[in-house]
Structures are given as structure tokens and as C-alpha cells.
Design goal:
Elements lengths: L7 E4 L21 H9 L8 H12 L7 H9 L10 H4 L3 E5 L5 E5 L3 H7 L5 E4 L6
Parallel strand pairs: 1-4
Antiparallel strand pairs: 1-2, 2-3
Length: about 130
């Protein structure tokens, strides 16, 4: 099952109030999905695919032991999963997500020149993160 994006740029959500890329820091004992995804992606440009980010986030968020990885992977992908368009990074924290032609992702801050350049590239599929409210 392949749920990766290729040659795609996900813009921040239309209803996002973020005017810059913000570090998610909720200051709770348990890390949020946004914090985990940010920690995986920040400084790791084009290291992970969407599938890897989603599954690693699940493993860390649910505190699943490494020994259960393979059985958990089957269970996780056995049901439908929300894509990175639903990530808090694009909905709330001001981060665009650029997926290259191999399907690997990079965070791009909404205020950056790179964000504007990617948003206007005609050779990319450009879409938006989902709105927080309908």
C-alpha cells in the first residue's frame, strides 16, 4: 500500500493563523502528534517518506516497543490513515511540506523565500493542508 506523495508541495491551511514556522511545544508530559512530527522532520530534510513519518509518529505517540514494530505495522496499515495534509504542522504551526520526486519530505517555513518559490512552481502538485474548521 503506497500512500506517499511525490513532486508535491503542501501549503499551510487556508485558516492557519501562523505567519512563520513555529516549533510545536505544548509542554505536556506526553508529546503531541505535531511535536513528534516536527522532531522527526526538523533538520532531517528528505530523510522520511509520508508513510515513514506517519508510522514513526504512531509508534512514538503510542509508546509502542520496538519488539512489536512488525506486528504493529500490519495493524497500522490494515486500516486507513489520515495523510500529512491533516498534520498540525501545516494546519497550525506554519510549515509547508515539500515531497520530492522520490517521495521524501522536507519542512519549509511559511515565511521563507523557498516556501514562496515552491508554492509557485508549475512542475509540482500544489495542495493545502486541511482546514481546522469546516
Amino acid at each position: 500500500m503506497n500512500v506517499n506523495y511525490y513532486d508535491t508541495f503542501i501549503l499551510v491551511a487556508e485558516d492557519s493563523k501562523a505567519d512563520h514556522g513555529e516549533f510545536p511545544n505544548v509542554k505536556r508530559p506526553k508529546k503531541t502528534i505535531g511535536e513528534i512530527q516536527f522532531e522527526l522532520l526538523n533538520g532531517n530534510d528528505y530523510k522520511y517518506t509520508q508513510e515513514e513519518v506517519l508510522f514513526e509518529t504512531h509508534m512514538l505517540h503510542k509508546n509502542i516497543p520496538e519488539a512489536a514494530r512488525e506486528s504493529e505495522k500490519a495493524a497500522f496499515w490494515g486500516k486507513s490513515q489520515a495523510c500529512m495534509r491533516t498534520s498540525p504542522l501545516g494546519k497550525r504551526y506554519g510549515w509547508g511540506l515539500h515531497f520530492n520526486q522520490e517521495g521524501y519530505v522536507k519542512l519549509v517555513a511559511v515565511e521563507s523565500p523557498e516556501y514562496r518559490e515552491l508554492a509557485n512552481r508549475e512542475d509540482l502538485n500544489v495542495t493545502r493542508a486541511m482546514k481546522s474548521k469546516r
